[in-house]
Queue: 2 jobs
Job 1
Amino acid sequence: MTYNLFIYLIITIVAITAVMARKMLISAIMLAVASIALSLLMFKFSAPWAALFELSVCAGLITVLFISAVSLVKKEDMALKESRAKFTILPLISGAVFIFMAIFLMPYFESLSGFTRNPEIQPKVGEIIWKFRSADLLGQITILAAAVFVVKSVFYKRSEQ
Amino acid sequence: MTLTSTFSLDWLFAALIIFIGAYCMVLTRNLIKQLIGLEIISKGVMIAIISSGAMSGNTNLAQAIIITVILVEAVIVATGLALLVKGYRLNENIDVKKLDNLRG
């Protein structure tokens, strides 16, 4: 439990830092740190496949995408002036929300744990993906195809005649 | 208040992290930061899913769902950033309030 609490604190602090950071590059790096902490948590919950995906896709690929996008719009990083006050008070607001939720939502979450149903058999991850959740797989393939289509059409280059 | 499991603690932090992401998405005008807020929300959702899976002894199903969530998240971020870069090239801006070309 102490380990979990430690990881949760890291993720929360890193998320607040990512929101408060003045530079987008720091926000992207903080997001990667949050992903690494989350993958450690998934290993703790004995979910190695999810942790592997989290580590490779979220901490790797998405961070690279963010950093490349930030480098492409670097000038705007300085130009967009926003009031800092709403981000500066975020730790205070988060603390207040945490206390509020600990008082009012915690008993509800406790009651939810009474609905636990332990399955008799537990199929493997691959078996679940291919057999039981094949509709998800179809959705994934569709959304990937749609994303490829969008990116291709956004960066369409007309041939000069 | 006595904790019967870490489940309620997991969900408490998941709710807090979702709140932080939503706060970022609602209050910022920067498009990159809005996507970062979306990422933070998805982190909270993943904590909730994996915690539920671990509590009900159904970790493998939770893993399968998390893999789907991660894929959708990566696709959304890639598409969003592509649109952002294209919008920046056209308008020289990533401020959501200035993306009003289609206003009648």
Job 2
Amino acid sequence: MALDYEESKQKIIEGLQKKSKTKSKFYFNDLAKILDAKPREAKKIVTQMINEGILEFWSSGSTSMYGLKGTGKQAGAEHENE
Amino acid sequence: MAKHETPLLDQLESGPWPSFVSDMKQEAEARAKNVNNVEYQIPSDVIEDLLGVLELSYKDGETHWKHGGIVGVFGYGGGVIGRYCDQPENFPGVAHFHTMRVNQPSGHFYTTEYLKQLCDLWEFRGSGLTNMHGSTGDIIFLGTFTPQLEEIFYEMTHKYDQDLGGSGSNLRTPSDCIGAARCEYACYDTQDLCTHLTLEYQDELHRPAFPYKFKFKFDGCPNCCVASIARADMSFIGTWKDDIQIDQEAVKGYVNGEFPPNGGAHAGRDWGAFDIQKEVVDRCPTQCMRYENGKLEINNRECTRCMHCINVMPRALRPGKQTGCSILVGAKAPILDGAQMSSLLLPFVEVNKENDYQEIKDVIESIWDWWMEEGKNRERLGELMKRQGFQKLLEVTGIDPIPQHVQEPRHNPYIFWKEEEVPGGFDRDIHEFRKHHQR
């Protein structure tokens, strides 16, 4: 059964905010776990959240991670918070 | 006079080999002169600052690049590798120095016009420094600022019909050998398969949802010119089913010295007369050849497609006529557990354009489903195969075990029977057994 987008979005936002004190970047698997969904289903939700600007990608070049837009050190370093 | 003194870098130019420092200085000078009146969109002295920060790193013994960050243009989760300098005040030209990966044309086929257009774009909106090609095969643009990324992407896609490549936990830009376009050994059309799968798997290329990187590489024959067997999570290596084609007259020609062996590749030195026994027959790893009474014979059942004999006598020997590819999986470089070569999964698959390579896609997708679900963060396919076993891979792909999956019989047979595969299961009636076997 396809996941409900609004419901899934809330789950991810809450899930990431809960951990935001210790972590700002998450692996894709962490998001799939929050949704308790198969990776391909989770990917559809995550992609839509990226397109809506709720989540953003982070990459070291070799590994990619996801975070709520604007959280974490990098946003500060690029003066995006000012 | 250079902007920054670089005595340590200058030393790198003193060796016998061409130096990247000289290349960078040349570009710095060209940007300073700007004979074409380019309206540089990032600082014109970017290269001088790059040399400066590198010199400082050599002096300090530590890097001045910050790790990671921005990943691409809107909607893309790869293709741009964010790099920032932690000394932006001293080196403002490299405050941002993002790399862009450009999806190279299959087989690295491009016209000089295309190349010039890309270089002009990069001169205009980037540092002008490129890497042709990165080890993944992409065209690499080195160094630009964040505001330029979308502009470059727009121009590339709209004017030059050119996409970004893969980075991060994505399908990386698929890469292939020059294949049937110029090579007589090609057993399938590497460029068509590479392009087809690149277009088919756009979502996997641009939106990261894999545990880690994943690489496809396509080699037209077992010579493996793109080294797929050593570098790709999934290697597609051309092969043939039937017998090596032999032209006995040409074999005699080689023996009589009429044709230079290896297509003349080793002609720079006098190696003496060609000796077919020593240079071909004795070199066969499975000893499946013999040369007697002026005739070369090959026991094709024993041939492992090493290509040595064909490479030495290309005029006399050719791959068979029933061609296709072998699929191998799990190669990787040595980050965890050491380097690993690909393991053979399918010895022969027909490379069939007619049905859009459906057979190959089925294998790919079943592997991805398994790896996406079971793979740990930053675990390559080869590591998952090691952790859960080759048998599990066979299970998820629905492929039956075959002798080619076992490297050495009886030494480490990792293919086990399951209870449901054994008639009567693992429980048996001991009285029935004892009727035929004594204690």
